[in-house]
Specification:
Elements lengths: L1 H16 L2 H25 L1 H8 L3 H29 L1 H21 L7 H16 L2 H12 L5 H30 L1 H22 L12 H9 L14 H6 L1 H31 L4 H7 L2 H23 L2 H24 L4 H17 L1 H12 L3 H30 L1 H14 L1 H4 L18
């Protein structure tokens, strides 16, 4: 009887832990992949696009930066929208928006007057729409995942994004080779629209709304939530959010992450092709390495962070762990930037961005801990700082590379990483911006 009871208890735990919330987070994993395919396609097609539109590398940087500026500008409003409308509707609308603007980018005629500015406008508006992605995903995680599982959940979201970035180089290069660069944008749009249908059909904003959530899973989720989330978020305590040392320290640390990560999502393929002299095929293959590293390291880092939280405390598992990933990344980045051999440089730089992504999930796990029902807004603010830094590097990296060489461009990036270690040391994940009376319906 005791053995039968033990087996039954184990089965209950398995049912409780691996049901609806993990199936839905895998859909967001795919949404993350779509986000980064849409984001990466222009960097892979950049040389061909620049040739068609007769624009310089610096002007191509403006196109890249336009996306980042639009993305950063809309992140806080996107977090508010995700909180009010719920992640089910906001992610669905976002996927449709991204598909439309990705298509619009490819439809800009090269011969039209001010074609460069049309490209910049299309990418800026695409950035506005893609701002919905991660605040919506983190709002979902805050409602569906207990605190001790948020590292893994965010790692899956970010891992999907990196999988998309890893798939993008060979996929987009193949489509360009066979059908031209315009077709690559159309394919990206169609993939997103297909995912939108599945997401809207399967997702719900909170566990209580989903017919397939078992009582055991519901009890497990609610037991690990600092505050139960039900329905639209309560009024945002804007003064608390914008005066929180912990929120701003997390955001400043994420600026170091964003500055370096953007180099790999915008300029790494061009660095391999033009800076190191690799052909399109070799650049596409080597261009996969950073995203293989980021996918595996992002997933691993989320597990490590959750384990450290359980073994020690949130400060060690989130803040100190995040600081250590920045330190490790900066050291390897300097070594890779100064490597003489092109393949060795690609391998080391891939290791550097992999180390950076060991801590990716931590930023959003902390945002969920700090924000509670206002997670979309807090994660939007954190992400905004990263995207502003990313917009800067999208334009500054080609400038530094042209003026001082690619090795110094990577050295500067490492310096930014080292500086942004400091804010992590001041983050206490337990300093929440909400009170218990903020609980919806409470």
């Amino acid at each position: 009887m005791e053995r039968r009871a033990a087996i039954s208890a184990a089965g209950t735990r398995f049912t409780m832990k691996f049901r609806v919330r993990y199936l839905l987070i895998m859909l967001i994993f795919l949404v993350g992949a779509v986000v980064n395919i849409d984001r990466s396609n222009i960097s892979i097609a950049g040389s061909f696009l620049a040739a068609d539109y007769h624009i310089s590398r610096i002007q191509l940087g403006w196109v890249f930066s336009a996306f980042m500026i639009g993305y950063a500008a809309f992140l806080i409003p996107a977090g508010w929208i995700a909180g009010r409308l719920g992640p089910r509707r906001t992610l669905t609308g976002g996927l449709v928006w991204w598909g439309a603007l990705t298509t619009a980018t490819a439809l800009v005629p090269p011969a039209m007057a001010n074609a460069l500015w049309a490209l910049i406008a299309a990418r800026f508006i695409l950035g506005l729409g893609e701002a919905l992605a991660y605040p919506s995903a983190n709002q979902f995680i805050a409602a569906w995942f207990p605190s001790q599982e948020r590292g893994k959940a965010n790692a899956l979201v970010q891992g999907g994004a990196q999988l998309g970035s890893g798939i993008a180089p060979p996929l987009i290069a193949f489509i360009i080779y066979k059908f031209g660069w315009h077709a690559a944008f159309y394919v990206s749009a169609v993939i997103g629209l297909v995912i939108a249908v599945f997401w809207y059909s399967a997702a719900r904003d909170v566990p209580a709304q989903h017919p397939s959530v078992t009582p055991q899973e519901m009890a497990h989720i609610e037991a690990g939530l600092p505050v139960r989330m039900e329905g639209p978020m309560p009024p945002v305590p804007w003064a608390k959010v914008f005066s929180s040392k912990d929120v701003w320290s997390t955001a400043l640390a994420y600026a170091g992450f964003g500055y370096n990560a953007t180099i790999f999502s915008t300029w790494f393929f061009i660095y391999l092709k033009d800076g190191r002299g690799f052909d399109l095929k070799s650049s596409a293959l080597l261009g996969m390495l950073p995203f293989i590293a980021t996918t595996s390291c992002c997933l691993t880092g989320g597990v490590i962070s959750d384990w450290l939280v359980k073994r020690w405390n949130p400060y060690i598992g989130r803040s100190l762990f995040g600081a250590c990933t920045l330190l490790l990344s900066g050291v390897i980045l300097m070594a890779g930037g100064h490597a003489q051999n092109g393949v060795a440089a690609a391998l080391l730089l891939s290791g550097a961005v992999g180390a950076l992504y060991l801590g990716q999930a931590v930023y959003y796990a902390v945002a969920a801990d700090l924000g509670g029902p206002h997670t979309g807004v807090v994660s939007g603010l954190v992400s905004m700082c990263g995207q502003i830094a990313g917009a800067a590097t999208a334009s500054l990296t080609p400038f530094f590379a042209s003026r001082y060489g690619w090795d110094q461009a990577f050295t500067i990036a490492a310096g930014v990483t080292f500086v942004c270690i400091i804010p992590w040391l001041f983050v206490n994940p337990k300093h929440r911006v909400y009170a218990l009376q903020d609980e919806p319906g409470g």
